[in-house]
Amino acid sequence: MFEGGLGGSNLNSNPRPTSPSGGRSSTGNTLFGASVRPSGPNRTITSDSGHDRPYRFSFYSNAMTQTIHARSFSELPAEGQTFEDLFLGRPGAAKGAESEPGITGRTTSRSNIFGSVNGNGTTTHPSSPEDVNDDPERSTWWLDVLSPTDEEMRMLSKVFSIHPLTSEDIQMEETREKIELFRNYYFVCFRGFDQDVYSPTHLEPLNMYIIVFREGTLSFHFRGTPHPQNVRRRIKQLKDYINVTADWISYALIDDITDAFGPLIQSIEYEVDSIDELVLILKDAEQTDMLRRIGTCRKKVMGLLRLMGNKADVVKGLAKRCNEHWSVAPKSDIGLYLSDIQDHLVTMTQNLNHYEKILSRSHSNYLAQISIEMTDANNQINDVLSKLTALGTVLVPMNLITGLWGMNVHVPGQDTAEGYAWFCSSVASSCGVPTYPLR
């Protein structure tokens, strides 16, 4: 896994130096033969500096009872401990259980990290170096890195012999989900989403990059995500019942990312059922918000379908590579877990496609309902206009007659001394002729 292998001639076994002020200095540190340089000149980490920086590195090991959190990679080992000791699960040459003021977020007691104190005050360690060499899985480690810099990626690539293609995918934040096998590890790119409902990037893709060696796992992500913490909590709950290997850690990360889609899909199901029931029974005044609800729900469904993408194919490809004949590939027992994830992914994808069809039908029904209501309104308007047209057809000729006999000119029947024969016959004919076609 490491350059030169564990225990090789290029491993630096010297304890890490500390600054005179009691803090930690990263000058002169080496990680399995690779220099860990500070990010600034003469950089010294003291107890009252750098507390505003986030904890970007989290280190878990089966040989420790707690997880180490640090702001920089050089802060992970304790006083008197080398990186080799850290990754092999050895407590190092620390003097008792002294506190480490340089790192407030990490575990500070050697007895608390690498073992427990029994009744007579002695410390028991879960594994010795000989046990580690006989069974590497007893000291399986996991290093989670948030937003690695280019310098940190170059250092980690050199130490762990990471292929340049893998480093490029991580640094360029490759969005395509995939599984790749290399000489000494396999690489998984799996996408989740931002779960913070108050974040402007809610539901946007969040890439998780997992590099799995036989002895441990490296994971990288460029935004805060609860998945590593959830997996560590799960390990703590199940550690007495399962064998925590590097393959199991990678499975647990993939499984936690997959499970994060469950509550969101469940909420979409409730919304889809509500829309499907109300779209045809709401009255005019209650339908003003329906189109917005349909549009918002369809947007969520399409976004999740895009995120689901080819997840099932990636997990299926990883499960197919599970065998006992190639040391790099996942073990066959992990294939059972991966098959379960694949079933969940297929089911969720089918549910989302079903919800999309329901929403499409509801959208069509809503538009059809609006069209029917508009047709009814147009029919009512046409009925009123037809009545007004009939009334106008009667009144307009009468206005013509009254206008003719009201002018100061000679009109028919004006010379008649008695009666209104001419006038009555003209009015009768003007009223009867236009109304004849209406019968």
From TrEMBL:
GO BP annotations, alphabetical order: intracellular magnesium ion homeostasis
Entry keyword set: Membrane, Transmembrane, Transmembrane helix
Record bears the keyword Transmembrane: yes
Keyword NAD annotated: no
GO molecular function: magnesium ion transmembrane transporter activity
InterPro entries linked: Alr1-like (IPR044089), CorA_cytoplasmic_dom (IPR045861), CorA_TM1_TM2 (IPR045863), MgTranspt_CorA/ZnTranspt_ZntB (IPR002523)
Membrane topology category: Multi-pass membrane protein
Gene3D superfamilies cross-referenced by the UniProt entry: CorA soluble domain-like, Magnesium transport protein CorA, transmembrane region
Compositional bias per record (Polar residues), positions renumbered to this chain: 105-127
GO cellular component, one term: membrane
Protein's cellular compartments: Membrane
Stretches the record annotates as Disordered: 1-53, 92-137
Domain of life per record: Eukaryota
Compositional bias per record (Low complexity), positions renumbered to this chain: 9-30
Family statement drawn from the similarity comment of this UniProt entry: Belongs to the CorA metal ion transporter (MIT) (TC 1.A.35) family.
Name of the protein described by the UniProt record: Cora-domain-containing protein
